[in-house]
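Severity: low
Component: inverse-folding endpoint
Summary: output formatting inconsistent between runs
Steps to reproduce: submit the following structure tokens with default settings.
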């Protein structure tokens, strides 16, 4: 029996219901596969940002209170969209600050060490800012990272974490564990972690759990509320295309929002808006995650984020993006096996449930850095992570199957 021919990139692109959204973005000349680092600019971001510049020019300070785009409440315009992306209620999410700032604010609330329960569990290869945040929080509470920071690592000779090892580490430190803080998708390997299982295991031993969703938000489907996650934070300039340094997001589970005993750093923008401008100095917490806000929202970055979130909604939301992404992953896997089998290894897990759209490619000949520089010279946008990984991420919102096909062809030439 003959094996049916597999579809070509051209055939897949012709059948792609999301293909038209590529025209919604300005994409640098070449092959842009680095949305895992900085998403492409939505064309309508210029219009959204210019609208706010025009309002600033014509209204001045009155822009805070005028019309449907009033700056006082502008951050609320994205709450329902963010909630759909991360699987939460709108009152559990807010766009504010930058990622690491949000992690610090939330760790103040959810890392509450005692003399017996003071440890934070992170991954051994955590993104440096997460590692720094955990260490500094431990020191600020009077503990020593040498004894209070514990890590879980891949087994010898392996590149990715085993789910059972994560759960085992939680159980091993059950009596002394205060907080589990892990990525949703690991930045280096692209491995998606079992967040629901981790949350359940952490809660079973009496620890809080939080996730850094920098590489997960807008990449994979999330259900933060149903999983019972205590808190999460993410940036928006990767898969959410908000622009360099774009405003970040934060999630706190609804069960914690009304608990006024939770410690937090507070600011004027976390107070009840009905009494905020009475200028009282008694903090009246908002009955939502917005009580973690410190300052008024950065309007221009939020306008750019709104542009991207509107496009994501028009494309059918994260479920539609993920459906295309799985097709692209399958096609990318096939093309690598056909053209580069044995010469390039993908460190990302093969199971769909354990990966997002990023590929972590390792050139087996050991000259990966030279290959990466050759890709750059050929106007292929991907990125390099020490010690030896080329990261390439086909983003379903604006990358085509042809992008993947051409990338593999150029990679094959450079490896050869």
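Observed output (run 2 of 3):
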């Amino acid at each position: 029996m003959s094996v049916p021919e597999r579809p070509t990139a051209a055939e897949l692109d012709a059948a792609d219901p999301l293909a038209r959204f590529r025209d919604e973005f300005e994409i640098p000349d070449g092959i842009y596969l680095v949305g895992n680092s900085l998403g492409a600019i939505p064309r309508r971001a210029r219009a959204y940002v210019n609208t706010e510049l025009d309002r600033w020019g014509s209204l001045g300070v009155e822009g805070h209170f005028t019309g449907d785009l009033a700056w006082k409440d502008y951050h609320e315009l994205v709450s329902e969209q963010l909630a759909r992306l991360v699987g939460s209620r709108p009152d559990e999410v807010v766009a504010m600050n930058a990622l690491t700032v949000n992690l610090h604010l939330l760790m103040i609330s959810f890392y509450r060490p005692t003399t017996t329960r003071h440890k934070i569990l992170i991954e051994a290869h955590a993104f440096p800012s997460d590692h720094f945040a955990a260490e500094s929080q431990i020191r600020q509470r009077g503990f020593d990272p040498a004894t209070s920071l514990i890590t879980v690592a891949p087994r010898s000779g392996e590149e990715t974490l085993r789910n059972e090892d994560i759960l085992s580490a939680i159980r091993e430190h059950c009596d002394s564990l205060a907080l589990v803080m892990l990525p949703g998708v690991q930045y280096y390997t692209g491995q998606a972690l079992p967040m629901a299982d981790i949350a359940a295991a952490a809660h079973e031993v009496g620890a809080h759990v939080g996730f850094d969703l920098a590489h997960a938000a807008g990449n994979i489907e999330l259900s933060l509320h149903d999983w019972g996650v205590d808190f999460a934070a993410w940036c928006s300039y990767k898969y959410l295309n908000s622009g360099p340094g774009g405003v970040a997001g934060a999630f706190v589970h609804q069960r914690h929002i009304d608990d006024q005993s939770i410690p937090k750093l507070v600011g004027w923008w976390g107070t009840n808006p009905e009494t905020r401008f009475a200028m009282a100095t008694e903090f009246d917490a908002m009955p939502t995650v917005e009580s973690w806000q410190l300052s008024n929202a950065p309007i221009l970055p939020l306008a750019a984020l709104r542009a991207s979130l509107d496009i994501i909604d028009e494309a059918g939301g994260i479920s539609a993006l993920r459906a295309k992404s799985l097709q692209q992953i399958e096609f990318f896997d096939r093309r690598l096996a056909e053209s580069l089998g044995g010469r390039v290894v993908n460190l990302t897990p093969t199971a769909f449930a354990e990966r997002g759209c990023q590929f972590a490619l390792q050139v087996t000949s050991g000259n990966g850095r030279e290959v990466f520089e050759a890709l750059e010279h050929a106007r292929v946008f991907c990125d390099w992570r020490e010690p030896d990984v080329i990261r390439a991420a086909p983003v379903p919102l604006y990358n085509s199957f042809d992008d993947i096909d051409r990338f593999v062809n150029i990679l094959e030439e450079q490896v050869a």
